Structure prediction request, 75 residues.
Amino acid sequence: MSYRTLDKEWYPPEELRTVSLKTVAELLDTTRTSARRWLKEAGIQPIAIGRGRKGAIRYRWADVAAWLGSRQHVD
Prediction:
C-alpha cells in the first residue's frame, strides 16, 4: 500500500495521529523531562507502540492539542 497518491501526502485520521515526547518538548520549548511531567500532571497517558528497543512511546495528538488549547497564554 502506498502512502502517496497523486503527489499528495497521506495523513492518518485525527484520532490516530500521535506525537513523540521530543516533539511536544520542542513545541513547548522545554526539556523532555519537563514535558513528560506536565503531560503526566495533565493526565495524558502515553501509548506504547511496539516492544523492547524498537518500541516507541507516543501521545495522542488530540489529547495534547486539547491540553495546549486549555492552557492560559501569557504575552
Observations:
- Strands lie at 4-5, 8-9, 18-20, 47-49, 56-60.
- The chain has three helices and five strands.
